[in-house]
């Protein structure tokens, strides 16, 4: 895991301990990525995937569930695609099921990091 990913992990763990979400833009700004740049967004997406692999292995939680789009107040599509890959969400889930999956993951994260 590179330095930016490690810094992002620390930021997200701190958010989890404080039961807070963070916007993609705010997270990316803190680690030196530009949300307006497609290459940086792709880098950030892969980085969040790495973080998920680590936290899924360690605590069975998707730490990236704390990262949301400002305009939608929920994660980007990549979060839900990864949840499908992991079997946490059906591929044909409707919007309500997707939101329930996301909220459940956030609650699991908060429980792990505050206990």
Q: Give the radius of gyration.
A: 13 Å
Unreliable stretches: none
Return the domain count. Answer: 1
**Strand line-up of the largest beta sheet:** 1-2
The helix count comes to: 5
Straight-line distance between termini = 26 Å
Helix content: 55-70%
Question: What's the pLDDT, averaged over the residues?
Answer: 96
| Class from helix and strand fractions | mainly alpha
Main β-sheet description? 2 strands, parallel
What global shape is seen?
Answer: globular
Spell out the helices and strands N to C. HEHHEHH
Question: Can you describe what's shown?
Answer:
With 115 residues, the chain is mostly helical. The protein has one domain (3-114). Helices cover 64% and strands 3% of the residues. It has helices at residues 3-17, 24-31, 38-59, 77-85, 95-114; strands spanning 22-23, 67-68. Strands 1-2 form a two-stranded parallel ribbon. Helix 1 packs across helix 2 (24-31) and helix 1 crosses helix 3. The longest helix is centred in the middle third of the chain and has 22 residues, at 38-59.
Question: What would a concise description of this structure say?
Answer:
With 115 residues, this protein is mostly helical.
Summarize the topology.
Blueprint: H1 3-17, E1 22-23, H2 24-31, H3 38-59, E2 67-68, H4 77-85, H5 95-114
Parallel strand pairs: 1-2
């Amino acid at each position: 895991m590179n330095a930016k990913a490690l810094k992002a992990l620390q930021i997200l763990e701190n958010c989890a301990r404080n039961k807070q979400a963070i916007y993609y833009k705010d997270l990316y700004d803190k680690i030196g990525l530009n949300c307006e740049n497609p290459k940086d967004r792709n880098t950030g997406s892969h980085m969040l995937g790495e973080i998920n692999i680590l936290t899924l292995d360690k605590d069975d939680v998707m730490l990236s569930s704390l990262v949301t789009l400002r305009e939608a107040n929920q994660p980007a599509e990549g979060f839900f695609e990864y949840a499908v890959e992991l079997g946490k969400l059906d591929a044909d889930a409707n919007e309500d099921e997707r939101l329930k999956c996301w909220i459940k993951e956030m609650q699991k994260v908060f429980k792990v990091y505050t206990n």
